[in-house]
Design goal:
By secondary structure, this protein is α/β, with parallel strands linked by helices. It has 9 helices and 8 strands. The protein has an 8-stranded parallel beta sheet. The model has no long low-confidence stretch (mean pLDDT 97). Bound molecules: zinc ion (ZN).
């Protein structure tokens, strides 16, 4: 298992990468989004140097608010093209997986159409990512109303799409982690961890919300997954992020011992 952190998009990505390296994270979940880390704000050469210095890998993350399922086709196309524009940068950073987020869209349109538009956008991205050696993984949003069949509808649009699990999102409006892993565990490409109290996507330190973490980690390990896990703990005091990292390592070990 590799443990990483996400750069805070309000801060300078190079400083964030250096902090991650200095504090023992083995990869950076590089989100390319404003206000401080939009693609045009990244100093690619400097960032690559820092990543090299700390031998850190990179996972690709894109803005969570792109309109992949807008009812207007040209807006969907703009979202797709915007992500494609970042492929060069991600490829240069040695990224394998790039994340996208299922959009909720406009409720006036049927759920079927909204999920289909998401899926069509991601299928085009999967196709256009291939020449860069990149793959697309789909993150489910923190919405209780989005169920397994919605996510399946999206993922089934292209078999190359991976599933990006967010354990915090799976806790909004009920305990949905086990069902998600049963449905998509075989397509699991990446994992995000943060705690919350089941209502909002709080991104609080692990163990301070309502998620049963030893159980969650056991469920993830049971799928055979042993790759990248990002802590999305956004406390102002980063001691809580480091404490969360320490706890994940312990729970991961315990899950192994318990089988
Ligand atoms: Zn996430």
């Amino acid at each position: 298992m590799q443990l990483g952190m996400m750069n805070d998009p309000r801060r300078d990505a190079c400083e964030e990468a250096r902090w991650a390296g200095e504090h023992g994270f083995t990869f950076l979940d590089l989100t390319l989004e404003g206000p401080g880390a939009a693609p045009e704000q990244i100093d690619i050469t400097a960032l690559r140097q820092i990543l090299h210095e700390y031998q850190m890998a990179v996972v690709g993350h894109t803005a969570w608010y792109l309109p992949f399922n807008a009812p207007i086709k040209s807006l969907r196309q703009a979202a797709i093209d915007y992500v494609v524009d970042s492929f060069d940068l991600f490829a240069e950073m040695g990224v394998h997986w790039v994340n996208v987020h299922i959009a909720q869209g406009v409720y006036l349109f049927s759920n079927h159409d909204r999920m289909r538009w998401n899926g069509e956008s991601f299928a085009e991205l999967a196709e256009r990512a291939e020449p860069y050696g990149l793959r697309i993984m789909v993150e489910h949003p923190p919405e209780a109303s989005m169920n397994i069949s919605d996510i399946r509808h999206v993922l089934d649009m292209d078999e190359r799409l991976g599933f990006h699990l967010d354990v915090g999102h799976a806790n909004i409006g009920g305990h949905r982690l086990e069902g998600l892993l049963q449905a998509f565990g075989s397509r699991l490409a990446h994992v995000h961890l943060s705690d919350n109290r089941g209502r909002n996507d709080d991104h609080i330190p692990l163990g301070t919300g309502s998620i049963d973490w030893p159980r969650a980690i056991r469920l993830i390990r049971k799928t055979g997954y042993d790759h990248t896990i990002t802590l999305e703990v956004f406390s102002a005091d980063r001691d809580y992020l480091l404490l969360s990292a320490q706890k994940v390592r312990t729970w991961w070990q315990q899950a192994e011992t318990e089988g």
